[in-house]
Amino acid sequence: MKKTLKIKDMHCSSCEILLKEAIEETGTKVVSTNHTKGEIVVDMKDEKEMVPVKKAIEKEGYSVA
Predict the structure, then answer these.
(1) Is 56 helix (H, G, I), strand (E, B) or coil?
(2) Using an 8 Å Cβ cutoff, are 30 and 23 in contact?
(3) What is the pLDDT averaged over residues 41-54?
(4) Those residues with Cβ within 8 angstroms of residue 26's Cβ, 6 or more apart along the chain or in another chain
(5) Burial of residue 33 (number of CB atoms within 10 Å: 0-12, 13-18, 19+)
(6) What's 30's DSSP letter?
(7) Minimal CA–CA distance to 62: which of 33, 47, 31?
(8) What is the pairing mode between strands 2-8 and 29-34?
(9) How confident is the model at residue 2 (pLDDT cuts 50, 70, 90)?
C-alpha cells in the first residue's frame, strides 16, 4: 500500500537523500521524495510499518505532519 507522508522542515535534495536512506533501513521502500512539497511516498505492506518509519524520520531531526 502506498502512503504519502508530509514531512516538516524537508527543504532540499540532501534532506530527501537522508530521509530516503533512513526509511529504507527500516525495510520500507521509498517510492518518491519531493522536498518542494515536503512529501515522501512509501510502499508499506501494512500500517504496522509506520511506527519504525516515523522513528527513523524523527531520529534524523524531522517530523511527520
Answers:
(1) helix
(2) yes
(3) 95
(4) 49, 52, 53, 55, 56
(5) buried
(6) E
(7) 33
(8) unpaired
(9) very high
What residues does 8 pair with on adjacent strands?
Answer: 63
Residue of 47, 50, 51, 16 whose CA lies nearest to 31? 16
Rounded Cα–Cα distance for residues 49 and 38 (Å): 20
Q: Show the cell assigned to 10.
A: 524537508
Alpha carbon distance 10, 16 (integer Å): 7
Tell me the domains of the chain and their CATH numbers.
2-64 (3.30.70.100)
Per-residue pLDDT reduced to its tens digit, 20-40: 999 999 999 999 999 999 999
